[in-house]
Specification:
Layout (H helix, E strand, L loop, with lengths): L3 E5 L4 E2 L2 E2 L1 H13 L4 E4 L11 H15 L5 E4 L5 H14 L3 E5 L8 H13 L5 E5 L1 H4 L5 H7 L5 E6 L4 H10 L5 E4 L5 H6 L4 E4 L6 H12 L3 H17 L7 H9 L16 H13 L5
Parallel strand pairs: 1-4, 1-10, 4-5, 5-6, 6-7, 7-8, 8-9, 9-10
Antiparallel strand pairs: 2-3
Helix pairs in contact: 1-2, 2-3, 3-4, 4-6, 6-7, 9-10, 10-12, 11-12
Length: 291
């Protein structure tokens, strides 16, 4: 359903509140630079610090601003299955094109629990569902065998893989039907994942270099590995700089350097250290972004 560069969009705040004007500016920046889809209220969007109402309002706002110019994927995951159902049902009613659901964090469900969690959410909507595996955040990793079972559920269409394991990615691609789509959840692993059959990336870096991420993933999709490798090497220092501190601290710092947003995060996240900001400035300049 989706391919190439999908941006995991940050949520800008100003004086403690959602900054709608900056969010609209970010959306237009993405659309004008070739991003293929937007993920809103994913982990990079700080949903863990939002009220339920804020979460819903931001999904609705994004859908309205985008106005069908590209697909909108709503982050609707929770470690409470009932809440995940409610958020996903809201996203469908609001007009989102798909939903991304992180594996339930803290609860640490066994494979049977993960299967039932995702199946329950998927059966509550007709919206396409993308699984999200990020064990560094959640404390659990969804097994490739469980992913294969879930791929048989009609509207579970893909997975964002941020396990850091190429073996995990290869096992999923081997066990699941060709129609099941795998997306990199790590910018620096985008190229190798696409080389073994992944469809693209749900990207943090695309917040700041959407055109280059679209170009790199587009080249990989077309089999132009020379061009894709050259862009990967150019962007690699930025990929690493954007994770010098907990995401989305550095990417918000980078966007602030670019004049796109106020540098504001919600506690318990704090502003980047001065040394991080300097390294971000250097990495942006190396990628061709003058700040």
């Amino acid at each position: 359903m989706f391919q190439n560069s999908i941006t995991a969009l940050v949520t800008p705040f100003k004086n403690g509140k959602f900054d709608a004007q900056a969010y609209e500016r970010l959306i237009e920046f993405q659309i004008s630079h070739g991003t293929s889809a937007l993920l809103v209220c994913g982990c990079t969007g700080e949903p863990a610090t939002m009220s339920h109402q804020e979460h819903c309002d931001i999904i609705k706002f994004a859908v309205e601003v985008v106005n069908r110019r590209l697909p909108v994927i709503a982050g609707t995951g929770s470690n409470n299955t009932r809440e995940a159902v409610e958020l996903t049902q809201f996203a469908e009613k609001a007009g989102a094109d798909a939903a991304l659901l992180i594996t339930p964090y803290y609860n640490k469900p066994v494979p049977a629990g993960l299967y039932q969690h995702y199946k329950t959410v998927a059966e509550s909507v007709s919206l396409p569902i993308i699984l999200y595996n990020v064990p560094s955040r959640t404390g659990i990793s969804i097994l490739p065998e469980t992913v294969a079972e879930l791929a048989a559920v009609k509207n579970i269409v893909g997975i964002k893989e941020a396990s850091g394991s190429m073996d995990q990615v290869s096992q999923i691609l081997t066990l699941c039907p060709d129609s099941f789509e795998v997306y990199s959840g790590d910018d620096s692993m985008t190229l190798p994942i696409m080389a073994v059959g992944g469809r693209g990336v749900i990207s943090v870096a695309a917040n700041v270099v959407p055109g280059l991420m679209a170009e790199m993933t587009g080249a990989a999709s077309q089999g132009d590995w020379v061009a894709a490798r050259a862009l990967h090497k150019k962007l690699f220092p930025l990929f690493k700089a954007l994770f010098l501190e907990t995401n989305p601290i550095p990417v918000k710092g980078a966007l602030a350097l670019m004049g796109m947003i106020e540098l504001e995060l919600r506690l318990p996240l704090t502003s980047p250290q001065r040394t991080t900001m300097e390294k971000l400035r250097q990495a942006l300049n190396q990628a061709g972004v003058t700040v």
